[in-house]
C-alpha cells in the first residue's frame, strides 16, 4: 500500500521549499546600507591612533564627547577646531548640558607626548577629570 501526497486528479506535486531569493536580496540591501552608514558614525577627525591592549571602557551615553589631536597638535571638539586655551570654557557648558562628565581624547600616534599632556593639564586645571584616552585595538 503506497501513500501519496498528490490529490487525485492533480498532476503538479506540492513544493515545500522556501524561496530564499527575496531573503538574500533583503540581506544584501541591509549589508550595503550598513557599509555606507558605518563610516558616518565616526566621531571626531581622522587620526592615526596608537596600539594598546587596554580593556574597552563602557559608554554611559550613546554619543560620547570626543576631543581629537592631529599630528600637528591641533585640537578638535568632534570635528571643529578649537584653541587649547578655550577648551575649558567651551566644554564646561556642553558637559553640564549632557549630564555626563566623561571625555574621550584621541591623539595621533606621531604626536609628541608632551602635546597630549598639555591638553590633559588644561582639562584637569579646569576641573574636567573624567578623560579616557582612545587607542586602536590590536
How does this structure look, described?
With 138 residues, the protein is α/β, with parallel strands linked by helices. It has a domain at 43-137: Nucleotidyltransferase, domain 5. The chain is built from three helices and seven strands. It has helices at 21-37, 87-98, 113-125, and strands at residues 51-52, 65-69, 75-77, 80-82, 103-107, 131-134, 136-137. The chain has a five-stranded mixed beta sheet, with helices on one face. Strands 1-7 form a two-stranded parallel sheet. Strand 5 (103-107), helix 3 (113-125) and strand 6 (131-134) form a beta-alpha-beta unit. 12% of the residues are buried.
Notable characteristics:
alpha/beta, 3 helices, 138 residues, Nucleotidyltransferase, domain 5, five-stranded mixed sheet
Q: Quick recap of the structure?
A:
The protein is an alpha/beta fold. The protein is built from three helices and seven strands. The N and C termini lie far apart (67 Å).
Order of helices and strands: HEEEEHEHEE
Q: Specify the CATH class of one domain.
A: Alpha Beta
Net shape: elongated
- Helical percent range? 25-40%
**Tally of DSSP β-strands:** 7
- CATH architecture assignment of one domain: 2-Layer Sandwich
CATH topology of one domain: Nucleotidyltransferase, domain 5
Averaged pLDDT: 80
Name the strands of the widest sheet in spatial order: 4-3-2-5-6
Pick out the low-confidence regions.
none
Structural class: alpha/beta
Which range does the strand content fall in? 15-25%
What is the alpha-carbon Rg in Å? Answer: 27 Å
Main sheet characteristics = 5 strands, mixed
Number of helices: 3
Q: Cα distance, first to last residue?
A: 67 Å
Amino acid at each position: 500500500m503506497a501513500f501519496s501526497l498528490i490529490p487525485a486528479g492533480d498532476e503538479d506535486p506540492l513544493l515545500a521549499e522556501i524561496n530564499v531569493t527575496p531573503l538574500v536580496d533583503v540581506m544584501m540591501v541591509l549589508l550595503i546600507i550598513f557599509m555606507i552608514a558605518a563610516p558616518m558614525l565616526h566621531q571626531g577627525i581622522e587620526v592615526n591612533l596608537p596600539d594598546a591592549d587596554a580593556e574597552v571602557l563602557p559608554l554611559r551615553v550613546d554619543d560620547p564627547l570626543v576631543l581629537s589631536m592631529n599630528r600637528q597638535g591641533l585640537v578638535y571638539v568632534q570635528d571643529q577646531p578649537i584653541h587649547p586655551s578655550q577648551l575649558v570654557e567651551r566644554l564646561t557648558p556642553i558637559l553640564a548640558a549632557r549630564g555626563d562628565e566623561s571625555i574621550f581624547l584621541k591623539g595621533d600616534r606621531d604626536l609628541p607626548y608632551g602635546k597630549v599632556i598639555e591638553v590633559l593639564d588644561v582639562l584637569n586645571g579646569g576641573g574636567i577629570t573624567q578623560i579616557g584616552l582612545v587607542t586602536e585595538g590590536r
